[in-house]
Each structure stands twice: as C-alpha cells, then as structure tokens.
Specification:
194 residues, mainly alpha, 2 strands
C-alpha cells in the first residue's frame, strides 16, 4: 500500500466518522424535538455533529464488520456503544466537572451513565450502520476522486479543529465559572456556620 493509498483510506474513514457524527446529531436533536417539543442542539460541539456517534459508528464497522448473525450484531453493537458511552461520560465528567447526560431516572442504568433503553437503541443502530449505512457510505465515498477527497478532508478538518477549539474554550470557561461559584458558596457557608 502506497502512502497515497493510506491517505485515501484515512480521508475516507474521516468522512465516515463525520457522517456517523452528523447522523448522531440528527438523531439526538430530532429526539429532543419529538420528546421536548422544541429544538435543542444536543451536540457537545457548536457544529452539527456528536463525535461519540462517529466513534461508535467506526468501532462497530471496524470491530463487527464480519458479524453476520443479526442478533449477535445487535447485542455486540449495543454493548460496544454502551461501553463507549460510559467511558465518554466518565471522561467528560473528570475533565469538565459536569455531566452531559444522566440516566439515573431510567430503569436498569449503571451510575446514570448508560441504561437498558440505550443499549437497545444502540443495538438497532449498529445493525443499521453495518447492514445499510456502511455499504451506502463506502460506495458513495469510493466514487470521490482523490483530489476532491483531499480538498473536502482539508476543509472539513479545518472546520472541525476550529469548532473543537472554540467549544473546548467555552466548556473550560463554564467549568471555571462553576468552580468559582462553588468556591464562593463554600466560603459563604463556612462563614455562616462560624
């Protein structure tokens, strides 16, 4: 495999990741519209993507591509995606001292980070990704000429890096403000108790 071939593979997987991330954002935002009756951007970034869905989609495609039994694919996808969701929730909480989702009120949850209903939804999504979306996306992106693939990848990477930098800055400011309020409240409570 030549360096050019490797670059094409990397660029295509980047586009797959973006496609799955965008599909996740559409799912999350659409679900919010249906359940809450209002538009609510459910992404962690400013752009219309949920990166966790991109990573989940790629993990399912890479690790479960040869699983042919639909039930095995369903269960494996659900467990894989819930493991990713749990690890992501834990990491975000440790990094930013906040939770972006909490399933404590749902049955069969684990520390409010994952729940049974999500395992079922992720299982269905995993089957859909492997059986429908992957063949479509792989076929579509394979038709993009290398020069266009380079241009699209560079443009989208630039936009993504800018979005991540801006979003991380905002989250860091929110974390700092929350810690400041927490420190002020602790000081006020300590003075009131004395």
């Amino acid at each position: 495999m030549t360096p050019m071939d490797v670059l094409i593979v990397v660029e295509r997987f980047f586009l797959y990741w973006l496609a799955y991330s965008f599909a996740g954002w559409v799912w999350e935002t659409g679900l919010s519209v249906v359940l809450r009756k209002r538009f609510e951007d459910r992404g962690m970034l400013n752009g219309p993507i949920c990166p966790i869905y991109g990573f989940g989609g790629l993990l399912v495609v890479v690790l479960l591509h040869d699983v042919n039994n639909p039930l095995s694919l369903f269960l494996s996808s659900g467990v894989l995606a819930c493991t990713l969701e749990y690890a992501s929730s834990w990491a975000i909480e440790k990094l930013y001292h906040m939770r972006f989702w909490d399933y404590s009120g749902k049955p069969f949850n684990i520390n409010g980070r994952v729940c049974a209903s999500n395992l079922l939804a992720f299982g269905v999504m995993g089957v859909f990704v492997v059986k429908v979306l992957k063949p479509f996306a792989f076929g579509l992106f394979a038709k993009i000429p290398p020069v266009w693939l380079d241009a699209i990848s560079i443009t989208l990477t630039t936009l993504l890096v800018a979005d991540v930098a801006i979003s991380a800055g905002v989250l860091t400011k929110i974390r700092g403000a929350a810690e400041s309020v927490r420190a002020d409240n602790t000081e006020a409570i300590t003075k009131a108790v004395r």
